[in-house]
């Protein structure tokens, strides 16, 4: 299989509200950052792919406006997915694998501040049975979290099963939040950083039981971009490329009532097909907007205590819709670029309760 790598990654500073700038103004500095990092101009990119959501912008075909930031004249080879940018990266990756392109620019962005995000996300639900009830994203995540805690409470203490040693209780949820937002103190782009210890977090009131505010992601605006390159081109423009050794995405049933919300078999299958279980990873960037979802993913992806999980702070530190998944791949690649990891796993999700999941395995050349 042709070698393809992430050779550059950039992201905006994620903020609660960016009313003073447009999507194009938010995106352009990020595009310039990644292109400058590899010494390329927009006209030298063979393929461009973006990810965004018209529901956030409130207008149809809103992604065409963002092309002003890329420069679509002279005409370029371009595509768009109504999805998180991680899936745009998947499309660009397949384009490079076929040899149709040597380089690709992938970007995504989202401004959640103009509307009520919890209400907007109900449009992802089954339109016949679930959406008419208007359950919001936090309430659905709380149902998933409660199912996980209930399953843990009834599990035989001597039966570890598929838990992989990952305990699921409210203290564990608080521990995920504290670790993630403490790690975000080293991330200059994070929207939230710093945390009280888990014991203090457990004294906070519930937002939607069993989730407290620290168990949930911030609502904010942001953008991200990566550059992909193949083979010798990647080695020429990047000191240590993050080679994509495998990538796969799978989905759960649309109906929440037919799923076991305490599991994520699509994540495990995607990881298996991506080759994640063929060798240990030393770092994982998981797109887990809620603390309970990180516990589920760590079990499904077989991540032990020796794996550094979300050293960037993850989605609990910044969760710009349609960009947070691409950021997970970018953060994993950036760790390989700077020598902080040799083999990393990156995960992205979309939809309620980990409905759709993408897993990528990245590796750096031996030092």
Can you summarize this structure?
The protein is of the alpha/beta class.
How do the strands and helices of this protein lay out in sequence?
Blueprint: E1 4-11, H1 23-38, E2 47-51, H2 54-57, H3 63-70, E3 78-81, H4 85-97, E4 103-111, H5 117-120, H6 137-154, H7 170-183, H8 198-201, E5 206-208, E6 211-212, E7 221-230, H9 231-237, E8 242-251, H10 265-274, E9 283-285, H11 291-300, E10 308-309, H12 324-337, E11 343-350, E12 356-363
Parallel strand pairs: 2-3, 2-4, 9-10, 9-11
Antiparallel strand pairs: 1-7, 1-8, 4-7, 5-6, 8-12, 11-12
Helix pairs in contact: 1-3, 4-12, 6-11, 7-11
Strand order of the largest sheet: 3-2-4-7-1-8-12-11-9-10
How large, in whole angstroms, is the Cα Rg?
Answer: 20 Å
Structural class estimated from helices and strands? alpha/beta
Summed up, the helix count is 12
Q: pLDDT under 50 segments (min length 5)?
A: none
Overall strand count: 12
């Amino acid at each position: 299989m042709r070698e393809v790598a992430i050779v550059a990654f950039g992201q905006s500073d994620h903020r609660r509200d960016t009313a003073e700038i447009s999507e194009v103004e938010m995106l352009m500095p990020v595009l310039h950052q990644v292109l400058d990092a590899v010494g390329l101009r927009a006209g030298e990119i063979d393929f461009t792919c973006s990810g965004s959501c018209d529901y956030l912008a409130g207008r149809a075909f809103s992604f065409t406006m963002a092309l002003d930031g890329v420069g679509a004249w002279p005409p370029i080879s371009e595509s768009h997915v109504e999805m998180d940018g991680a899936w745009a990266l998947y499309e660009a990756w397949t384009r490079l694998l076929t040899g149709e392109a040597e380089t690709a620019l992938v970007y995504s962005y989202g401004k959640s501040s103009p509307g009520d995000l919890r209400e907007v996300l109900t449009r992802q639900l089954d339109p016949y049975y679930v959406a008419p009830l208007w359950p919001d994203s936090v309430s659905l995540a709380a149902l998933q979290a409660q199912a996980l805690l209930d399953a843990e409470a009834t599990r035989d203490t001597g039966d570890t099963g598929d838990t992989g040693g990952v305990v699921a209780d409210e203290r564990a949820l608080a521990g995920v939040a504290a670790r993630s937002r403490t790690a975000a103190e080293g991330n200059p782009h994070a929207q939230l950083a710093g945390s009280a210890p888990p014991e203090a977090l457990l004294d906070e009131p519930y937002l939607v039981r069993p989730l407290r505010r620290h168990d949930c992601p911030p609502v904010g605006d942001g953008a991200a971009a990566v550059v992909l390159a193949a083979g010798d081109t990647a080695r020429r423009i990047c000191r240590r490329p993050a080679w994509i050794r495998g990538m796969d995405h799978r989905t759960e049933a649309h109906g929440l009532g037919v799923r076991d919300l305490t599991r994520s078999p699509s994540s495990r299958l995607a990881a298996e097909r991506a080759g994640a279980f063929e060798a240990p990873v030393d770092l994982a960037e998981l797109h887990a907007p809620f603390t309970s979802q990180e516990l589920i993913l760590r079990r499904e992806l077989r991540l032990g205590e020796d794996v550094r999980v979300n050293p960037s702070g993850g989605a609990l530190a910044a969760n710009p819709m349609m960009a947070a998944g691409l950021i997970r791949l970018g953060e994993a690649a950036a760790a390989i670029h700077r020598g902080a990891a040799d083999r990393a796993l990156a995960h992205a999700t979309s939809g309620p309760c980990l409905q759709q999941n993408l897993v990528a395995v990245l590796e750096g050349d031996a030092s």
